[in-house]
Specification:
This protein has nine helices and 13 strands. By secondary structure, it is an alpha/beta fold. The strands form two sheets. Strands 8-9-10-7-11-12-13 form a seven-stranded mixed beta sheet, covered by helices on one side. Strands 3-2-1-4-5-6 form a six-stranded parallel beta sheet, with helices on both faces.
């Protein structure tokens, strides 16, 4: 069967990861790369494919004619705008998190995709980690019984090594805020496991980022109820000194308690469940420091595999457009409250 042909818009760290995973997939072909920076500054010469400096130049070129999928790995603020342009050109799209910076723009993307009969893949690769897949299956099995409480802790370091003067990180229009850029993956996991939330009560503060970011918060405590029952709390901060501390989820349920921890929610730290024996899980990709592929970012090959499987009618989308929209909606409501 013919290979699925991809282009990648945005050739930063994550965009390069998309390009690499496409190149390694036997059923995929990388056909074009797009970025506003000069090719000589990007370190992507090894791919030997046509390069464009704008999405419009690419979409108007003959190269775009045979493209099946366009992966959008630009700064957050361009995700929805570029998604609409790619869908208008009748291409399937893969959108890095977050799908948009507001619910209205995410809805526009979904509406356009339905109009042109194209697929929208929202990238939430944390779902592929062994602890995530395990806790999903445990919750769906019903062995935990009723969910009483859930606490999500996200404590990371993001200092002037990350928020550089010539970078889009920290800007209001292109970054959007700490919950969008740093912690949307974990909010997605929470939604994936427990569903929607209501009765949100948020408290934000800015401990040491007022000179680094345009948005108002680097830390916060958010309380809420789950629509399906139970209460939840999200505690987050990027003011941790020197290096990341943890990303963890603690679940208190009718028949037991579970905690997944580590820097990237990559370790099962507690599993004490009635009449249940913890299975042995596959190893989780290790985390590392700035500029590298942190923890589950190494799971992008699963994203590309899912795109190929869906377009070849072998599977369904792992994270569909409506789920991507719900994560944006939840974050937007957290900020509004």
């Amino acid at each position: 069967m013919p290979k699925i042909k991809f282009a990648v818009i945005g050739c930063g760290h994550i965009g390069k990861r998309h390009a690499e995973m496409i190149s390694r997939n036997e059923e995929s072909e990388l056909v074009a790369l797009i970025d506003t920076k000069p090719l000589s500054e990007l370190g992507i010469e090894k791919y030997a494919v046509p390069f464009f400096n704008s999405i419009d130049d690419f979409l108007n070129s003959p190269v775009a004619t045979d493209i099946d999928v366009i992966n959008i790995a630009t700064p957050n603020g361009f995700h929805a705008e570029y998604a609409l342009k790619c869908l208008e050109a009748k291409k399937h799209i893969v959108i890095e998190k977050p799908m948009a910076l507001n619910k209205q723009d995410a809805e526009k993307v979904i509406f356009k995709a339905l109009q042109v009969h194209k697929q929208v893949f929202a990238v939430m690769q944390n779902r592929y980690s062994p602890p995530s897949e395990w806790i999903k299956s445990l919750i769906e099995s019903g062995k935990l019984g009723k969910i009483f409480m859930m606490q999500l802790n996200c404590y990371w370091n993001r200092d002037d090594r990350y928020y550089k003067a010539d970078n889009w990180h920290g800007t209001k229009d292109l970054d959007g805020g700490t919950l969008f850029t740093q912690f949307s993956h974990f909010i997605d996991l929470m939604y994936w496991l427990f569903g929607d939330i209501q009765n949100i009560n948020s408290r934000f503060t800015n401990f040491n980022h007022s000179h680094l970011t345009e948005f108002r918060e680097d830390s916060g405590v958010i309380n809420f109820d789950f629509v399906n029952g139970g209460i939840g709390c999200l505690n987050f901060s990027t003011s941790i000194w020197d290096k990341n501390l943890e990303s963890s989820m603690t679940i208190i349920a009718e028949n037991g308690s579970v905690k997944i921890g580590g820097q990237y929610m990559d370790k099962v730290e507690v599993c004490h469940v009635k009449d249940y024996e913890m299975p042995e899980l596959a190893p989780t990709n290790p985390g590392n420091d700035y500029g590298a592929y942190k923890g589950s970012a190494a799971n992008h090959h699963y994203v590309i595999e899912n795109v190929v499987d869906v377009l070849k009618n072998r599977s369904t989308i792992t994270t569909n457009a409506l789920e991507g929209l719900k994560v944006v909606d939840i974050i937007e409501r957290m900020y509004q409250q």
